Amino acid sequence: MNSRYTQLCQWLTQATNILQPELKMVAGDASFRRYYRLLWRDTSYIVMDAPPPEEDCAPFVRIARHWFQQGVHVPEVIAQDLDQGFLLLQDFGDDQLLSTLLSPSTTGHNDLANAGRLYRKAQKSLIKIQRTTGTGLELPPYNRELLLREMALFRDWFCCQWLELELNDQDISLLDRTFECLSHSALQQQQVPVHRDYHSRNLMLTEDDDIGIIDFQDAVQGPITYDLVSLLKDCYIHWPPEAVSHWCDDYQAEARLAGVLPENYPREKFHQEFDLMGAQRHLKAIGIFARLWLRDGKANYLDDIPRTLQHLLEATEKYQNLSPFHQWLLDRVVPALNKKQSAKESI
């Protein structure tokens, strides 16, 4: 038993009066946070351990309490110690949206009808988040600097460090132009509260068949398509483009009814913004997956890179101004990644 765990149990005793709390490890994630389950008074709770200075619980608590009051289904904060980095939270259970989406139908394939039902639930929950605009929660802006910094992860950690590509001036210029194009599109969009990691591993199916939302501490004020593309072009699952397009149309209809999206917003413009936002996010995600392996030793995220790159290729193929970048991905990145994958499989 390490000192951090002992410290956590001592805090729980103060918060709950349980003399010897028994905790069961639930999971970790891509950060330094760790999660445990606690049974207290016949009710299950989640205990978050977010060690400072690596993690700061204050944004999570601030957003959780505000969104909870606004009717967004986030965990209720039962007890907190921000200085030590400990939280006692409502428990949404273990059923991630991803596991249900990946469950095969009777035909042996992912069930698109069931996925559509679940995505409609998730999109309604997303709209609740987007409607919290102007209700007193000050979120940092998803500005150009942040957008570009995220995309630079693709160049620095994935291309240069993981694939070991030697980028010349022409390559760097192409990447810079592409990053500017994608950031410009994002900043031209309607700006709303953005969860920033609204995907199938951060959405829980609760016992009452509702969507519970977690991992929102990095929320910002940003592009309206960001969370939608995180959901529908998830790094952990791939759907046929026509299904994604249909679900995107479903969201637009709901968003118009809710007043989140203007009634006369052009469908084609929204789909283009959705695609370009996806390209930005997938560049970021690929860079993060490479960094999680190279810096943090978390190899499992490497398996998600090919799927995420497929999303990126599908988005960049559609638009003429991204054609040079799309071809560069095919000529330089895909062969290098295939070589890495083959080397990994031969070990």
How would you summarize this macromolecular structure in one to three sentences?
The protein has helices at 3-16, 58-69, 97-101, 112-130, 144-162, 169-188, 226-232, 241-258, 267-294, 305-316, 323-346; strands at residues 23-28, 34-40, 43-49, 77-81, 86-90, 191-194, 203-205, 211-213, 220-223. With 347 residues, the protein is an alpha+beta fold. It is globular.
Write a structural description.
This protein is α+β, with helices and mostly antiparallel strands. It has two domains: 3-90, 2-Layer Sandwich (Phosphorylase Kinase, domain 1), CATH 3.30.200; 97-346, Aminoglycoside 3'-phosphotransferase, Chain: A, domain 2 (Alpha-Beta Complex). The protein has eleven helices and nine strands. It has helices spanning 3-16, 58-69, 97-101, 112-130, 144-162, 169-188, 226-232, 241-258, 267-294, 305-316, 323-346, and strands at 23-28, 34-40, 43-49, 77-81, 86-90, 191-194, 203-205, 211-213, 220-223. Strand 4 and strand 5 form a beta hairpin. 37% of the residues are buried. The mean pLDDT is 93.
